[in-house]
Amino acid sequence: MRTLRFSAILALLLSFGLCEHVGAQSILKGLGKKALEKVQGKVENKTLESVDKTTDDLLDGSLFKKKKKEADEKKDAAADTDAAAEQKTAPATKGGEGEKKAAALTWNNYDFVSGDVILFEDNLEGEKLGEFPSKWDAFSGAAEVVKFDGQSVINTQDATITPLFADNKVYLTDESTVEFDIYVWSEKAYKAQTGSDDGVGLNDYCVILGAGDKIERVYGNTDNMSLFFHITACSDAPAEEILYSWSTPSGDIREGRYEIKGIERDAWHHVAISFNKRAYKVYFDNQRVANIPNALAPKFVQLQGSFDYGRLYFWRNVRIAKGAVPLYDRLQSEGKIVTYAITFDTGKATIKPESTGEINRITKIMTDDASIKFEVQGHCDNTGTDAVNDKLSQQRAEAIVAALVGNGIAADRLTAVGKGSKEPVADNGTDEGRAKNRRVVFVKK
Q: How far apart are CA 308 and CA 312, in angstroms?
């Protein structure tokens, strides 16, 4: 059994004490059984005094008072900026075209690329509102499908959920990617939704990658943890923190943190994680927030909404994939590149910002070899009519061409062709098959 170092315990304690008015019992509950036992007296002698002092601070309220004071100071420092900004109380609607273009530019250095062998994907297609999402299992709490911000999303209520596989076997490989969107609320919008000022557990999202040989709840059990990644954005302070811990192959538990500045409230945010051999990279929107060089290989994924405040933990677009053969190698061996890493807004030809990494990789291939020309093919699944799919796939192919031209590739080296749903590569009768049919293909001419 590995020893959980005091610094890791303290990091977890602090991760649940960054919001105002958090009760000591809520914090200790979040530690999990093993960590709780250590805090209650089963830690090693050399750390006992420190743990006791921290526990005393929690119970007499001094730690909370300190955190509250720090949060108040942050708010005061940002008062002028906040007063000038519009406070939103409804799901976010993006600004004008100028704002969209300016936001897109910040993704130029984004280097995350989704794996293109899909292991699990859930856009909640065909799910009934109010029901537990059919592609998931729960270790604790509850979850249901709700309609929010114009689409179906997963709402977790003090829950830990995990993708449901028929054989219940571990599924991640030594080259894997995990992606999902979360909704981050402002305090004002939270109050408008719930009528309550007590939003201490708001926006407390966690993703946990387990390292054990079977799928089981990881939280509090460091023996089968690869990565614990915690997003805390519970106040309206101008900067919030990412807290994370990971296990090394030798058994150490290490931790880090990253400050996010200017996080947008009442808006969706994209989280992406890549693991390659032994290294993690983690992204929050366009920022790389963790770069971990030596970690235990992950085997499965869990998502956790740490509290149940107003039932306002929303998740969507969960995608887990296996890493792929490098693009140039595929081009040389097959004469084409099939990619699932270029994605679009639902029912539209608007390229999602997180597709930038893949578009930049295609750009580099064409820049390095000026003789390469591509037919850019857009493919859909069979959802919808041929008339709709043919038009949409053509528009998406044209959008990709425009993006490459915007990166400096000559327009005469690219041809856009919409294939609609006419050339499936998998069974459109299953969710997994439809996911494989929604793809972009670059065919060398």
A: 8
One-letter amino acid of 394 = Q
C-beta of residue 288 within 8 angstroms of C-beta of residue 279? no
**Residues 216-265: tens digit of each pLDDT:** 888 666 778 999 998 877 666 656 788 999 999 998 999 999 988 878 88
pLDDT confidence of residue 149: 81
User: Does 62 have pLDDT greater than 70?
Assistant: no
CB 416 within 8 A of CB 395: no
How distant, in Å, are the alpha carbons of 39, 65, 225, 395, 425 from that of 323?
Answer: 39, 46, 21, 28, 19
3-state secondary structure the chain: CCCCCHHHHHHHHHHCCCCCCCCHHHHHHHCHHHHHHHHHHHCCHHHHHHHHHHHHHHHHCHHHHHHHHHHHHHHHHCHHHHHHCCCCCCCCCCCCHHHHHHHHHCCCCCCCCCCCEEEEEECCCCCCCCCCCCCEEEEEEEEEEEEECCEEEEEEEEEEEEECCCCCCCCCCCEEEEEEEEEECCHHHHHHHHCCCCCCCCCEEEEEEECCCCCCCCCCCHHHEEEEEEEECCCCCCEEEEEEEEECCCCCEEEEEEEEECCCCCEEEEEEEEEECCEEEEEECCEEEEEECCCCCCCEEEEEECCCCCCCEEEEEEEEEECCCCHHHHHHHHCEEEECCCCECCCCCCECHHHHHHHHHHHHHHHHCCCCCEEEEEECCCCCCHHHHHHHHHHHHHHHHHHHHHCCCCHHHEEEEEEECCCCCCCCCCHHHHHHHCEEEEEEC
What average pLDDT does the structure give for the chain? 76
Report whether pLDDT(35) > 80.
Answer: no
Contact status, residue 208 vs residue 219, Cβ threshold 8 Å: yes
Q: Identify the bridge partners of residue 337 per DSSP, sorted by sequence position.
A: 442
- Mean per-residue pLDDT, 9-15: 39
Residue 144 in this model has a pLDDT that exceeds 60: yes
- Confidence at residue 61, expressed as pLDDT on a 0 to 100 scale: 37
The per-residue pLDDT for 48 is 33
pLDDT band at 10 (very low <50, low <70, confident <90, very high): very low
CA 24 to each of CA 33, 63, 157: distance values in angstroms, whole numbers, following the listed order:
15, 10, 20
Q: Who wins on pLDDT, 346 or 99?
A: 346
Q: What is the pLDDT of residues 112-140, one digit of tens each?
A: 888 878 899 998 988 999 999 999 999 98
